[in-house]
Amino acid sequence: MTVVDVHAHVFPRISRTESRILDAENGPWLREDEGGAGMMMSGTTEYRPVGVELWDAATRIEQMDRQGVDIQVVSSTPLMFGYGADVCRAAVWCELVNDRILDLCSHAPDRLVPLCQVPLQNTEAACEEVTRAMAKGHAGVHIGNHIGDRNLDDGALREFLAHCARENAAVFVHPWDMLAPERMPKYMLPWLVGMAAETQLSILGLILSGAFEELPRNLRLCFAHGGGSFPYLLGRADNAWRRRDIVRTDSPQPPSAYLDRFSLDSAVFDPGAFRLLVDVMSPERIMLGTDYPFPLGEEEHGALVRGSDLPPADRDLILGQNALKFFRIGSPRDGMTETRA
C-alpha cells in the first residue's frame, strides 16, 4: 500500500536578491536562521516562522518516513504566487520557483512529486509556463482559487483550465487572499473561516456558471481542505437550484450532479466531518492531504483515514491509490513500504 500526501507545501531556497525579480520591495524570500529554523519573508517583513523541513529535502524525507508517507505531491506556499505583479516579472519569477522546486524534488524523485505555479493573472503566460513545466517534469499545477475579483469560472481562467486538460496537467486549487480580511483581524479567522468560504465559492462558481458543461471531462481538478464548506452545504445548494430559477440560470443540472468532475483532499480533521465528506463525494474522489508542514496540518499523517470505519479497500483508495492515478505517479522504488496498511 503506497501512501500519498497530495497537500504538502515547500518554500525552496530563494534569496532576498532573487525575490526582487517579482517585487523590488515586498518579494517573498526565505531567511534561514540557526538551529534549523527560518522565516518566510515579504521584503523586510517577517511573514511566518518555519522549520528546515520546508526547504530541506533530506529532513522532509526523514519526517515522511516517521509518518508512514511514501510520496508527497509538493506545491509552493501561496505567499509565492505573485498574482499581483506585472506579468513579465511574474513569468520570470514562476520559472525560477518551478525550477527550484524541481531541484528540491530531484533529491528524492521517487518520493517527491512537483507541482508548478504559474502567472495566472495572464492566461497566455500561464499556459506557456504549464507547458514548459510539464515538459521539465512537473506533474501538474498549483493555483490559487481566484485572481482579484475573478473566480475560476471567469472566461480567461476557464481557458487556462482547458489548457491544463490538453497538457494532461493535474490542477490542485488552494484558497488564498481570503475575502473580508477587515472583518477577521484576529484568531486566524481568515484561515478558519475565509479559506472554507473561498473554496466553496470556487466550486459552486464552476458548477452554477455552467463551466463544467464546457470544460473537458479529462480535466483533473482537486480542491484543498476537504472542499471547505462545500460538502456540508451541498444540500442547501441543491435545494436552491430546485426552487429558484435565478440559481439554475446557467447550470442545467443541480450541483450534486457534478461531483464526478473534481476531487477533494481529506484535510478536515474530524471523524464526523470525514464521514460526511466520504458520503458526499464517494471514496473515489478523496485523496489524503495533510497541509504539511504547517501548524494547521494533520499532526499524525493519515490518522483520520486510517482510524475511520471505512472498508479497507476504501481507505486504500484515499490513502494512495486515487492519488497515484490522479497525478499519474509510478510505483515507488523497490525497498520502500508498499505494504503499509
Write the layout of secondary structure elements.
Layout: E1 4-10, H1 16-19, E2 28-32, E3 37-42, E4 45-51, H2 57-67, E5 71-76, H3 87-105, E6 112-116, H4 123-136, E7 140-144, E8 146-147, E9 150-151, H5 155-166, E10 170-174, H6 189-208, H7 211-214, E11 221-223, H8 230-243, E12 263-265, H9 271-281, E13 286-287, H10 303-306, H11 312-326
Parallel strand pairs: 1-5, 5-6, 6-7, 7-10, 10-11, 11-12, 12-13
Antiparallel strand pairs: 2-3, 3-4, 8-9
Helix pairs in contact: 3-4, 4-5
Enzyme class: lyase
InterPro entries: ACMSD, Amidohydro-rel, Metal_Hydrolase
Protein name: 2-amino-3-carboxymuconate-6-semialdehyde decarboxylase
Q: What is shown here, in short?
A:
This protein has 341 residues and is α/β, with parallel strands linked by helices.
Folded structure, characterized:
The protein is built from 11 helices and 13 strands. It is an alpha/beta fold and 341 residues long. The strands form 3 sheets. An 8-stranded parallel β-sheet has the order 1-5-6-7-10-11-12-13. Strands 2-3-4 form a 3-stranded antiparallel β-sheet. Helix 4 (123-136) links the parallel strand 6 and strand 7 (140-144). The longest helix is centred in the middle third of the chain and has 20 residues, at 189-208.
What is the rounded distance between the termini?
6 Å
Q: Assembly state here?
A: single chain
Low-confidence stretches: 332-341
Supply the CATH superfamily name.
Metal-dependent hydrolases
Compressed to H and E, one letter per element, the order equals: EHEEEHEHEHEEEHEHHEHEHEHH
CATH architecture: Alpha-Beta Barrel
Number of domains: 1
Helix content: 25-40%
Report the principal-axis shape.
globular
CATH level 1 class label = Alpha Beta
Reported by name, the CATH topology is TIM Barrel
Percentage beta strand: 15-25%
Provide the gyration radius in Å: 19 Å
Number of strands: 13
Pfam families: Amidohydro_2
Enzyme class: lyase
Protein name: 2-amino-3-carboxymuconate-6-semialdehyde decarboxylase
Subunit structure: Monomer.
